[in-house]
């Protein structure tokens, strides 16, 4: 019998959303952008919303679902009744200091507003717990549990953001992965790009190099910060050190130390290692990379520790008791 968990429910509400349009969508029909960006709604739903006049394009008179983006920079749409999915009501404060607070985020729960969530977010819930405005400084997938640090004033937010940008913060993840990982330690060095919608992909360097190389221009070194590529997004360098913590016959517990901070990096690099994270609906053993599967459950990935030497912060969580190899 599974253990029951407290859940958080918010009443339905009206909401107007303003979204910037990435340059990669220039020349793409409006209906394709909406369907790819918000795959939890059908194309028929978005077509009806556009034709009803609920979707407005900044700097454009686009009014038909098949109209193509040209110079538009943002889209605004109104939803008269937002019904947010429930989330675990389990956010807890695990550390505080001058100008910052750290919480343990359950999964599934997004950190920031967006997609289907605006009030059932770690940010909004932590603000309720503290009774004050706070500032997000780093990201964590909705399906990932673990440490999230917020700044409690704008000056500290700037300081923390700079530290993260300069690589002064050490992060450590734990993952429960499929299969027995035989190699004690390995470095996964594969750049990452957006594939479509919320789905990303990692590309082996030897596979990406030909597309990035000409006879006059040698292949970039792995330390190159940004590798250009065709597709929805450009390839960006990504490196993760993976160490085995515990081996089982059918699964393993590993420690993942990211040297870069790309979207879905740990998930993609465990997949690239040949041992995807358990219960991952996209990159897991039975993952669906079409982008049609909702990420509405927790996966076996935890942001377990953070070391912030410049601020004297060191935080570590115990592994979930349900992870048994």
Strand content: 25-35%
Total of domains: 3
Mean pLDDT: 87
Secondary structure tally: strands: 19
Largest sheet: 10 strands, mixed
Give helix and strand order, one letter per element, not per position: EEHHEEEEEHEEHEEEEHEEEEHEE
- State Rg: 21 Å
Describe it.
The chain has 3 domains: 13-82, RNA-binding S4 domain (Structural Genomics Hypothetical 15.5 Kd Protein In mrcA-pckA Intergenic Region, Chain A, Roll), CATH 3.10.290.10; 87-166, Pseudouridine synthase (2-Layer Sandwich); 175-316, no CATH class. The strands form 5 sheets. Strands 6, 7, 8, 9, 10, 11, 16, 17, 18 and 19 form a 10-stranded mixed β-sheet that branches. It has a 3-stranded antiparallel β-sheet with strand order 2-4-3. The longest helix has 12 residues, at 154-165. By secondary structure, it is an alpha+beta fold. It has 6 helices and 19 strands. Residues 210-231 have low confidence and may be disordered.
Describe, in short, the structure shown.
With 325 residues, the protein is of the alpha+beta class.
Helices, strands, pairings?
Layout: E1 7-8, E2 13-20, H1 30-37, H2 43-51, E3 55-57, E4 74-82, E5 87-88, E6 92-97, E7 100-105, H3 122-130, E8 135-136, E9 145-151, H4 154-165, E10 170-178, E11 185-189, E12 192-196, E13 199-202, H5 205-212, E14 226-227, E15 235-236, E16 239-247, E17 251-258, H6 265-273, E18 301-308, E19 313-316
Parallel strand pairs: 9-18
Antiparallel strand pairs: 1-5, 2-4, 3-4, 6-7, 7-9, 8-9, 10-17, 10-18, 11-16, 12-13, 14-15, 16-17, 18-19
Helix pairs in contact: 1-2
């Amino acid at each position: 019998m599974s253990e029951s968990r407290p859940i958080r429910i918010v009443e339905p509400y009206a909401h107007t959303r303003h979204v910037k349009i990435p340059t990669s969508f220039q020349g793409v029909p409006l209906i394709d952008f909406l369907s790819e960006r918000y795959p939890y709604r059908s194309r028929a739903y978005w077509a009806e919303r556009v034709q009803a006049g609920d979707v407005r394009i900044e700097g454009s008179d686009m009014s038909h679902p098949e109209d193509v983006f040209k110079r538009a920079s943002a889209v605004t749409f109104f939803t008269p009744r937002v019904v947010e999915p429930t989330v675990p009501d389990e956010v807890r404060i695990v550390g505080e200091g001058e100008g910052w607070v750290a919480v343990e985020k359950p999964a599934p729960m997004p950190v920031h507003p967006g997609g289907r969530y605006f009030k059932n977010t770690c940010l909004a819930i932590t603000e309720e717990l503290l009774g004050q405005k706070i500032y997000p400084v780093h990201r964590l997938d909705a399906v990932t549990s673990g440490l999230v640090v917020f700044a409690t004033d704008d000056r500290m937010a700037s300081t923390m953001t700079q530290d993260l940008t300069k690589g002064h913060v050490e992060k450590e993840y734990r993952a429960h992965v499929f299969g027995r990982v035989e190699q004690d330690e390995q470095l996964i060095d594969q750049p990452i790009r957006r594939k479509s919608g919320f789905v990303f992909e990692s590309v082996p360097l030897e596979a990406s190099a030909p597309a990035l190389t000409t006879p006059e221009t040698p292949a970039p070194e792995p330390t190159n910060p940004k590798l250009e590529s065709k597709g929805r997004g450009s390839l960006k360098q990504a490196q993760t050190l993976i160490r085995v913590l515990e081996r089982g016959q059918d699964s393993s517990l590993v420690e993942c130390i990211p040297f870069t901070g790309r979207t879905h990096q740990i998930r993609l690099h465990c997949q690239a290692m040949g041992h995807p994270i358990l219960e991952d609906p996209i990159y897991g053993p039975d993952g669906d990379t079409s982008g049609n599967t909702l990420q509405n459950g927790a996966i076996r990935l935890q942001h377990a520790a953070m070391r912030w030497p410049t601020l004297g912060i060191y935080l570590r969580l115990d592994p979930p008791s349900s992870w048994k190899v």
